[in-house]
Write a structure and sequence with these properties.
5 strands; about 5% strand; 22 helices
Length: about 400
């Protein structure tokens, strides 16, 4: 048994005495066989020395044997004394045994980046004819949304030309989640919403058109290669962010919370562009983020010179989405970098809450960074988090099924 600098610790060594986080709330117990992830947790806690005994032949796999340690690893880079971070960690630990471990990318982290990694975001977006040639229904909805003289009947007629889109919209509007929304606004209908005209009347022309635009582009990404992302998990995360973002907007009395739902649904669309256009590049960045415990957007900026949020915002600008949606997607990892940070802040907070407590980011392991200014703009305290998470969790499976 000996005390060694943490820098000399190796997987397989066994803790001879417990190690605690700076606030004393969390710890790794004596007798634990250390895996690499445990060492990252200890480094995140700024532990300098540990007491160890002899190494084992093989340390237990963190994801399979120690769900609590896996959660601590995902939070290791966050400030543990921040009340909302501590509250999210408590919720995450309570769900640790129920949550599946994030899927690992099957592309090796040390594979050299291919030459196409040097492509600029503009070149990437210009190289895919599918992303340039949008569905006709999208183009028509966009025209309706940009025309102040458009009528309810015109919006319903445009959306109604796509039976699949119509079915998704009506299912969503009739869901328990939207019943909750309309109950809060005082517009809860007495029976089912069985026509687009009625849906537009209840939600409003802009809200329903924005929702239809967001939903209409989802089929463009149905052929993403499966090597480095589980698309069902990816869309589950996106829907989770959409639900939390809309709940946050409703708490603030925003008159058009639908745009927050759509921004949440599309906040990681830049990742899908990379998976579709440059799968080797996307796989390499994701693998490096997973193996080092660093946020994915940091790794992307280091290796590519831009991140998926910027790429997604540029795509929405190319498609002429409303500027508020474009900026919410573009700035969600750095809300204060824009001129109007409110919407990006709510999406960033919703992303952090969702990754921490509901479902990971489609393979991304670390919880997004804590941005104090964004949480102040969201006006969300630690005591309110359990109710927000519970409300989103109640509707997550049902809303996900609508996008299947």
């Amino acid at each position: 048994m000996s005390r060694i600098p943490l820098s000399q610790a190796r997987p397989g060594m066994v803790l001879a005495e417990s190690a605690e986080s700076p606030d004393g709330k969390y710890g790794l117990s004596a007798g634990l066989a250390l895996a690499e992830a445990h060492l990252r947790v200890l480094r995140g806690w700024r532990i300098r020395e540990i007491e160890v005994v002899a190494a084992l032949e093989a340390a237990p796999a963190l994801d399979e044997k120690a769900p609590d340690a896996a959660v601590l690893e995902r939070f290791a880079h966050l400030p543990p004394k921040e009340p909302v971070v501590a509250a999210l960690l408590r919720l995450a630990l309570a769900r640790a045994a129920e949550q599946p471990a994030p899927a690992r990318c099957r592309i090796p982290a040390n594979r050299p980046l291919p030459p196409e990694a040097a492509l600029s975001p503009e070149r990437i977006l210009a190289n895919d004819p599918v992303l340039v040639s949008l569905p006709e229904v999208f183009m028509r909805i966009r025209e309706v949304l940009s025309d102040p003289d458009s009528t309810v009947e015109e919006a319903a007629a445009v959306i109604g030309k796509d039976p699949s889109l119509t079915a998704k919209i009506l299912k969503l509007v009739n869901s328990a989640f939207y019943a909750r929304t309309m109950r809060v606004s005082g517009s809860l209908p007495p029976g089912p919403v069985d026509s687009l005209n009625r849906a537009v009347m209840l939600l409003g022309l802009n809200q329903l058109s924005t929702l239809a635009m967001g939903v209409s582009v989802l089929p463009l990404f149905k052929d993403i290669p499966p090597e480095c992302v589980d698309m069902r998990q990816f869309w589950r995360h996106s829907v989770g962010v959409a639900l939390v973002a809309k709940l946050l907007a409703m708490r603030q009395g925003d008159p058009n919370p639908e745009r927050f739902f759509v921004a949440g649904l599309l906040h990681d669309i830049g990742r899908l562009v990379l998976y579709k256009q440059l799968p080797e590049v996307a796989g390499a960045t994701l693998s490096l983020a997973l193996s080092t415990g660093r946020p994915l957007d940091d790794v992307e900026r280091e290796l590519l010179g831009y991140d998926h949020a910027r790429l997604g915002g540029m795509l929405l600008r190319k498609w002429r989405f409303p500027e508020s949606l474009e900026q919410a997607v573009w700035r969600h990892h750095d809300p204060m970098s824009g001129e109007a940070p409110q919407e990006a802040a709510l999406i960033g907070v919703a992303d952090m809450v969702t990754v921490a407590t509901l479902c990971d980011g489609g393979g991304e392991r670390s919880v997004p960074r804590f941005v104090p200014e964004a949480w102040r703009l969201a006006d969300l305290g630690a005591s309110e988090l359990p109710a927000i998470v519970a409300a989103a969790e109640t509707h997550l499976d049902i809303v996900c099924a609508m996008f299947a």
